[in-house]
Amino acid sequence: MKPNMGGTDRIIRFIAAAVAVALYFTETLTGTLGIIALVVAAIFTLTSVISFCPLYSIFGLNTCPVKK
Asked: Which part of the chain is the Inner membrane protein YgaP-like transmembrane domain (predicted)?
């Protein structure tokens, strides 16, 4: 898998995942919505760690800076 996510995109995903987890554990998001938020947070974290987003490849997006 060739990286297709840039640094800014990865940071934004980490922040969004942290917010979703915090909202779940402070019981702001509960029930089904809370579980969905945790699943999305896990996916965001995983894609940020490996710098690859499958949806980006499907739609032809690439935010990774070009290496010279």
From this structure: 1-66
Q: Where are the domains of the chain?
A: 10-54
Decide: 64 and 4 in contact? Cβ < 8 Å: yes
CB 5 within 8 A of CB 52: yes
Q: Find all residues with CB under 8 Å of 53, minimum gap 6, and list them.
A: 4, 5, 47, 61
Q: What is the DSSP letter of 60?
A: T
DSSP letters for 18-58? HHHHHHHHTTSS-HHHHHHHHHHHHHHHHHHHHT--HHHHH
pLDDT > 70 fraction of the chain, expressed in percent and rounded:
97
Residue 62 corresponds to which tokens in the numbers above?
């690439």
Each residue's pLDDT tens digit, 33-59: 999 999 999 999 999 999 999 999 999
